[in-house]
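Tokens as discussed.
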């Protein structure tokens, strides 16, 4: 899909500027109203700097990856905290995604304007047990009929720092049951279903999110669809104690 860049290239060190910003936490009402600053050079180029109406920032500090070139303008916000595996995975995604769309944008200024990539994020600290990060963005260039939606999600154990696969939080057979729920709740056609259907999963304080990126499994006209399942709804398939992850026990054994 569009959110899984293929054969990424390393971006030029002269074309990017990663700047630590002041941390913004959802528990601080004052900080919620303050958006991370945009470089004055980029402000006139990016048509939309904030994609999430009310981003939640409960993990780490915000980092801004910025690029401005003749064919390509980008601003990606992402978190960096104290979980090395999570931070490395998120940063690698940022670098690979920026490089991929930079390569896709070569020659776009000849079409009338630079291509734009804008990505924002939310991060959650769930009952001091899990940390999750959701990145959501758009890539647009003049000739595209629809902008390309860009999405990624990461989940980690706060205790061990290890990244989690969806099988780590579901009972045996739970992944298949959850996939059936997603298919039932959407218009996903059977011929488009593959092993990546649940790739964009996210633990939140209230439940589990599954995101289907525009054009991957649903028509482009449907946009990106996010499904939400409360912990109570998933109680029969979650490998978590009780209906919330407060007393979760997650196995870090590698999946077969």
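Sequence:
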């Amino acid at each position: 899909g569009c959110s899984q860049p293929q054969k990424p290239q390393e971006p030029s060190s002269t074309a990017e500027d990663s700047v630590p910003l002041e941390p913004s936490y959802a528990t601080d009402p004052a900080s919620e109203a303050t958006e991370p600053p945009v470089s004055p050079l980029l402000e006139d180029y990016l048509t939309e700097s904030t994609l999430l109406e009310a981003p939640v920032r409960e993990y780490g500090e915000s980092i801004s990856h910025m690029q401005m070139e003749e064919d390509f303008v980008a601003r990606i916000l992402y978190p960096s905290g104290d979980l090395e595996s999570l931070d490395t995975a998120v940063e690698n995604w940022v670098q690979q995604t920026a490089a991929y769309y930079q390569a896709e944008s070569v020659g776009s200024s000849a079409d009338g304007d630079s291509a734009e990539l804008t990505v924002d994020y939310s991060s959650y600290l769930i009952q001091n047990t899990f940390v999750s990060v959701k990145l959501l963005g758009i890539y647009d260039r003049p000739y595209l009929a629809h902008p390309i939606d860009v999405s990624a999600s990461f989940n980690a154990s706060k205790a061990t720092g290890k990244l989690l696969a969806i099988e780590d939080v579901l009972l045996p057979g739970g992944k298949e049951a959850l996939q059936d729920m997603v298919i039932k709740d959407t218009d996903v056609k059977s011929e488009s279903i593959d092993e990546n259907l649940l790739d964009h999963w996210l633990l939140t304080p209230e439940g589990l999110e599954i995101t289907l990126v525009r054009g991957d499994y649903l028509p482009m006209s449907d946009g990106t669809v996010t499904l939400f399942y409360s912990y109570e709804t998933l109680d029969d398939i979650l490998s978590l104690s009780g209906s919330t992850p407060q007393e979760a026990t997650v196995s870090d054994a590698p999946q077969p």
